[in-house]
Specification:
heterodimer, A: alpha+beta, Uridine Diphospho-n-acetylenolpyruvylglucosamine Reductase, domain 2, Uridine Diphospho-n-acetylenolpyruvylglucosamine Reductase, domain 3, three-stranded parallel beta sheet, 22% strand, globular, B: 323 residues, alpha+beta, four-stranded mixed beta sheet, three-stranded antiparallel beta sheet, 28% helix, FAD binding domain-containing protein (chain A), FAD (chain A)
C-alpha cells in the first residue's frame, strides 16, 4: 500500500509536462515524472520515496516514438523494455534489456525510467553510452540535445524538473558486432553483479559496465587499456581493473573480491569474443 | 531416515455422521495445508466402507468447537495418526449400522457386512438394507421405528513413546520410521564456480502409497524447498543485526524454470500400525536435499562444502578464491 496521497497529472505535450512540474514544485509537492511506475510504486510502498504529485508522461506523443528517422534511431522515453526487445531496431539494446527484471516488469519499465531512476543498475544505459547517443531534454528553457556521456555516465545529472523526452542514436552503430552479458549472484532474474555490454567499432572495442560499481559507467581510460593489442589480453584486463575509476561494490549480492573475479572472467570472455569479430 | 520427536501424549480423533442420502460426513482435526490430507482421509474412509470417495464429504476447515482434536499437523504424522482415527470411527459406524440392521433383519450382527452403500447378510448379499434406511434407525412400513441414529467416533493414541535419555540417547521419540535415499546431479563450471542442478531423485519407503499424485507432489515440493534453501536462501544481517534482504526482491527462492528434473519413486514395506500400512512421508522430501546438493558440489568442486547456502561465491571462497 502507498501510505500517502498524491496528485496525478496526464499532460499531452512536453511543454505542459514541464509547466506542471514547475507549478507543483513551487507548491512544495516535490513532483516526479512518472512513466512505467515500477520504481516509484516499489519505493513508495516501502516508504523510501514520498511525492505530492506524479506527472505521467505516457500520454505525450514525443515520448512514444520508436523509429528510424533519417539517419537516427529515435526512442521515446516512455517506450517499454518489452517494446525495445520486440522491435529490436538496436539489437545490442534489445538483448541487453531482455534480461533486466522479469517479463511482467519489462512490460511496464520504460527506457526513460530505467535511465533516470534511482536504482543503480540502469542497464538500458550501456548501449547508449557505447553508441554515443544524444539525449533530448526538455526544461524551462526549452529543448536541448546533450551527449548521453555528459548527463548519464555515472551519476545522473539532469537539471531539476528536466524531462528526458527521447534518445537519439546514430544509425551507423546499430548493427555493429556486440556482446552483452549479465552475471548475477545466482538467479536468472536478479540485479547484475557484473553486466558488460561491448560494441566493436572500426576504431576499437567499446565497453560499458553496470552492477560492478554503484553507477553504470563507460570509461575511455579503460577502453584505451583494453584496446592495446600489443599486450596480452589477461594483462590488459588486470590493468583495467587496477585503473577502475569508481569503487567496486561490496554488498549483499557479492563481495568486492568475488565481483572482481567475475568481472575478470566476463571481461575476458567479452573481449575474446569481440576480438574475433569483424566490423 | 526420520521419525518425529512428538510429545508423549499425542492423539487424534475423527467423527462420522451419515446424511439422508447415505453419504458420509467426516471431520478430522489435522489441518489441510496443501499436503492432501483431506483427499487421503476421504480415501481411507471410502476404502474401509467399500464405497466411492464421492460418497464421503470431508469437512475442509477445523472448527475447534466441534472438530475432534488432532495433536498437531506436524512431524509427518497426520496420515498415520488421523488415518487410524478415521478407521476407528469407521469401525464404530459399522458396528452401529449392523446393530440397527440386525434388529430389522433378525440376524446376528456377526452375520452382517457393510459395503457398497448397504448392510447385507454375508452368506446372501441379496438380503440387506441400504445404509440410508438404517442410518438414523429404521422406520417400519407400519410407522413404528427401531434402532438408534448412527454417529461414528474414532480415536487414536500413540503409546509407548519415551523421552530420550540425555546420557545414552536411548528412547522411543516417535511412533514410526521412514527410510529413503536422495541424490542430486549437478553441472558445475570449474572456472566460474557456478552450477545448475540437473536432476534430483528421491526414493522413500512409504509403507503404502495411499494417493500417488499427492504423495509425489508432497515429496517433489519438499525437494524443491530443500534445494531452494540449500542453494540460495538465508537472511543476511548487518553488524547491527538488521535483516538486509527483507523482501522477495532480495530474498531469492528457486523460480519455476530453475528447477531440476525430479525423480520420485516409492517402495512399500507396510507399517503394521499405519492405516493400510502407510508411513509418514510429509517432510522427508526436504531433508536430504541440502546434503545431497552439498555432496554433489563437493565432488564437482574438489573441496568439502559444509555451509549453506551453496552460492557460487561460497564455492569460490572454499576453492581459495579469496579470503
Amino acid at each position: 500500500m502507498i501510505s500517502f496521497d498524491f496528485e496525478y497529472y496526464t499532460p499531452t505535450t512536453v511543454e505542459e509536462a514541464v509547466r506542471i512540474f514547475q507549478q507543483a514544485d513551487s507548491n512544495g509537492k516535490e513532483p516526479l515524472y512518472y512513466s512505467g511506475g515500477t520504481e516509484i510504486i516499489s519505493m513508495a510502498r516501502l516508504n523510501q520515496l514520498r511525492t505530492g504529485a506524479v506527472i505521467d508522461i505516457k500520454g505525450i506523443p514525443a515520448c512514444n516514438v520508436l523509429q528510424i528517422q533519417q539517419e537516427q534511431l529515435v526512442i521515446g522515453a516512455a517506450i517499454t523494455l518489452t517494446a525495445l526487445s520486440e522491435a529490436n531496431l538496436f539489437p545490442l539494446l534489445g538483448e541487453t534489456v531482455r534480461d533486466a527484471a522479469d517479463h511482467t516488469n519489462r512490460n511496464k519499465i520504460t527506457v526513460g525510467g530505467n535511465l533516470c531512476g534511482k536504482f543503480i543498475y540502469r542497464e538500458a544505459l550501456l548501449p547508449f553510452l557505447l553508441a554515443d547517443s544524444q539525449l533530448v531534454l526538455a526544461g524551462t528553457k526549452g529543448i536541448r540535445h546533450v551527449p548521453v556521456h555528459e548527463i548519464l555516465n555515472g551519476e545522473p545529472r539532469l537539471e531539476k524538473g528536466e524531462l528526458l523526452v527521447q534518445i537519439l542514436s546514430d544509425r551507423r552503430y546499430l548493427d555493429l558486432p556486440f556482446v552483452t552479458v549479465k552475471k548475477t549472484k545466482m538467479e536468472k532474474i536478479d540485479y547484475p553483479i557484473v553486466r558488460i555490454s561491448g560494441l566493436k567499432t572500426k576504431e576499437g572495442i567499446r565497453v560499458a559496465f553496470s552492477g560492478v560499481s554503484a553507477v553504470p559507467i563507460r570509461s575511455l581510460i579503460i577502453e584505451e587499456v583494453l584496446n592495446d593489442s600489443a599486450i596480452p589480453l589477461e594483462e590488459r584486463i588486470e590493468s583495467a581493473i587496477r585503473l577502475w575509476p569508481v569503487p567496486i561494490l561490496n554488498d549483499i549480492l557479492s563481495s568486492k573480491g568475488y565481483r572482481t573475479f567475475v568481472l575478470r572472467n566476463t571481461l575476458f570472455d567479452t573481449m575474446s569474443a569481440l576480438e574475433r569479430r569483424r566490423v | 531416515m526420520k521419525t518425529s520427536s512428538s510429545t508423549i501424549d499425542t492423539g487424534s480423533g475423527a467423527t462420522i455422521t451419515i446424511n439422508h442420502d447415505g453419504t458420509f460426513n467426516l471431520s478430522v482435526g489435522a489441518i489441510e495445508i496443501g499436503q492432501g490430507n483431506r483427499t487421503i482421509m476421504k480415501q481411507i474412509l471410502a476404502e474401509r466402507m467399500n464405497m466411492t470417495v464421492n460418497q464421503v464429504h470431508i469437512k475442509m476447515d477445523v472448527d475447534t468447537q466441534i472438530t475432534p482434536e488432532h495433536w498437531k499437523t506436524v512431524a509427518s504424522n497426520s496420515t498415520m495418526m488421523v488415518g487410524r482415527a478415521v478407521l476407528d470411527a469407521a469401525e464404530d459406524v459399522i458396528a452401529q449400522l449392523k446393530q440397527n440392521t440386525s434388529i430389522v433383519l433378525k440376524r446376528p450382527q456377526e452375520e452382517l457386512e457393510v459395503g457398497r452403500g448397504r448392510v447385507y447378510v454375508k452368506d446372501n448379499p441379496n438380503i440387506g438394507l441400504e445404509i440410508l434406511e438404517v442410518a438414523s434407525g429404521y422406520m417400519n412400513p407400519d410407522g413404528s421405528a427401531s434402532g438408534e441414529p448412527v454417529i461414528g467416533r474414532g480415536r487414536y493414541r500413540v503409546h509407548q513413546l519415551t523421552a530420550l535419555d540425555p546420557e545414552t540417547g536411548k528412547g522411543i521419540p516417535g511412533p514410526q520410521w521412514t527410510v529413503g535415499a536422495q541424490a542430486v546431479e549437478v553441472e558445475f563450471d570449474t572456472r566460474e564456480c557456478t552450477y545448475r542442478i540437473l536432476k534430483a531423485a528421491s526414493v522413500f519407503d512409504a509403507g503404502k502409497v495411499i494417493n500417488e499424485a499427492t504423495a509425489r507432489g508432497q515429496v517433489k515440493g519438499g525437494m524443491s524447498m530443500g534445494l531452494s534453501f540449500a542453494s540460495r536462501e538465508g537472511f543476511l544481517y548487518n553488524n547491527a543485526g538488521l535483516v538486509l534482504n527483507p523482501q522477495l526482491r532480495s530474498y531469492k527462492l528457486t523460480r519455476f524454470g530453475e528447477n531440476p528434473s525430479y525423480l520420485v519413486e516409492f517402495v512399500e514395506t507396510p507399517y503394521l500400525e499405519g492405516p493400510y500400512g502407510a508411513r509418514g512421508i510429509g517432510e522427508h522430501g526436504t531433508i536430504g536435499m541440502a546434503a545431497s546438493l552439498a555432496n554433489a558440489l563437493s565432488i564437482a568442486a574438489g573441496v568439502e562444502l559444509n555451509i549453506l547456502p551453496l552460492t557460487p561465491e561460497l564455492i569460490w571462497r572454499y576453492k581459495g578464491g579469496c579470503p
